[in-house]
Amino acid sequence: MPFIRTPQNTPLNNAPISSHAVKPQVSSIEEEDRVLAAGMLAQNPALVSMIQGRLGKLIGRSSGYIESLPPVIRRRITGLKGVQKEHSKLEADFQEEVLQLEKKYFAKFKPLYEKRRKIVNGIEEPSEEDITAGTAEGEDADETAKMDEDNAAEQQEVDPGIPEFWLSAMKNSTSLAETVTDRDEAALKHLVDIRMEYLERPGFRLIFEFSENEFFTNKTLVKTYFYQEENGYGGDFIYDHAEGDKIDWKPGKDLTVRIESKKQRNKNTKQTRIVKRTVPVESFFNFFTPPKPPTSEDGSQAEDEELEQRLELDYTLGEDIKEKLIPRAVDWYTGEALQFEELEELEEGEFDDEDDDDEEASDDDRDEDDEDSEEEDESGKPKQQEAAECKQS
Amino acid sequence: MPFIRTPQNTPLNNAPISSHAVKPQVSSIEEEDRVLAAGMLAQNPALVSMIQGRLGKLIGRSSGYIESLPPVIRRRITGLKGVQKEHSKLEADFQEEVLQLEKKYFAKFKPLYEKRRKIVNGIEEPSEEDITAGTAEGEDADETAKMDEDNAAEQQEVDPGIPEFWLSAMKNSTSLAETVTDRDEAALKHLVDIRMEYLERPGFRLIFEFSENEFFTNKTLVKTYFYQEENGYGGDFIYDHAEGDKIDWKPGKDLTVRIESKKQRNKNTKQTRIVKRTVPVESFFNFFTPPKPPTSEDGSQAEDEELEQRLELDYTLGEDIKEKLIPRAVDWYTGEALQFEELEELEEGEFDDEDDDDEEASDDDRDEDDEDSEEEDESGKPKQQEAAECKQS
After folding, report:
1. Is residue B44 part of a domain?
2. Could you report the predicted ipTM of this complex, rounded to two decimals?
3. Compositional bias of type Basic and acidic residues: which residue ranges (chains A, B) (predicted)?
């Protein structure tokens, strides 16, 4: 056959903004260590020797081939490595210039985002120019005219702006939709704006602005992604860690937990008492308490993998909000942006997430102690979605 | 649960060079169609109506929600679409500026690539500065000194340059390695250089330079990737198609085919005759006859998928050569670059490709006609790798 199965190494999504940040996998962490090691050699030989030990596991895949070459050829290879180092410096400069270019264009995008914010929140109506520009070729011009006539009559009765704009946009976004629970929606309806800012150091912050609501007192919730100071292999920026704002939940309104009330009956006295405990639950708002990258070598391999997955998801969500949701929110709101997602993504995104509801395992524990157990979330509403999930297992 | 399985929508590899080109999937083809449609509306309404029919399948996921909104709100949404169009123009400008930045840096990389070419081919020895820069921290300085002493003595006996530099680099690259057969290696040993150039229009060409060899007369083999003239959604460049040089194979040396000789015995006369036929085989050199993107709607879904996969592989190979192999060839040669590949990629790349040897199905056909069949490739050498694969099925 002339062609083989594809090794899936094309980028699955195409970041519209181009300076890259990659998650600090084993590989890039090692690279980072190497860069650090170079600077810290004199100060801390023990550290360097530890790092070299770790590197040894990965380097040397050539399994002796290069070592077996005549010295004069090895010398040429060493020379090429020197040339490559010059190249790497240029690559880092390039990524830096791309980042500056991003910032330059971000400044041009900003007034458009501001206009969007005003239209979405009913502070401003769109201009005739924007409506003409936004009317698709072939779309009924009469229809638009008709809207105009109806306007005056309707204006009073209709909500200002575009209701649930950001919630709807999030629910159409493949990765974000999966984090939004039914309970979250009541809070996310209050989203006034989602925007971003670049940090002074490499990184960015995502700002979620809310109108007054029954859930928390924060006016904005901010999630900040920090890149490492040193560029990685090929000049890419590397994620360092993320931080989120503490959410000031109003009493009994924390969407990231639920209260389990259990009636316990004493087997001897037959008296009952009610025990309440707080159980963490799935919620978009967990986005603001991101996982911490591993700092040392402790942790089992399974734990490492789970943490790695959680970190990857956290970066993915941040990246999707920065590169897709914010730049083209109206296309997410209408659902048109979905057609530009690569198919693999859609399939995986839509049909994942059925099994492995680990936290439901606690169901089994409840019967043990002759106790009636009742679940209620803090707002007292039934949790339909999660109930359905329980039945599956 | 606070975190769900990852929907794999982070870029699996991080392109060091940043203006994006994406393969023209259904989605981006549709986008392209839309752009074309806008310009061609007046000239060809039938075409536009056909295209709109296709778009209809994808757009409208909101299933009536937006249509159900009061006209004044729909008007605001139309206004936001207008704002979004301004944003799209800026995004295209941004991608254009990134491409210019790429070209600016490419000019800085070029002298380094030229130096590499000279060292690899024994035209020049590396400078002392390059060797010092290329000597890793902690690496034995005495060792390097020792190389120097040995140099004079060895210089005569040893090959000039770095033998099989590009072949070894290719064989360490996950995606490329899978395309290189045992037979190909004899030809790829003659690679003198792999380099790239940007086209005047959006796109690039990969240039494979060979020394004189027994396989073909071309001094260079060129593969050109063309992007579409219009940017796609989010300003990305979109692959249009690729073209490859015709390879002038020396007689009997075509690595992309093999000659099957079959002895056929006439059942009545018991006389035998030998029938030869040319069968296409897997070879890296098929890279120069890339698949053609679909132009119309014919073709079954299975055919479409197969073509889509072949196109994706072709783009992946081109991208990997442009973004990974050429920029950091020495790291591929030594294998060090592998550690910076994302793990998923390695796993998939290394353990794929076992089953589904479709073309081996012809084995079954041969017995039917009472014929002895013998395979030989044109050079008469046994094809160990392929033989091994046959046994598995």
Report:
1. yes
2. 0.72
3. 379-393
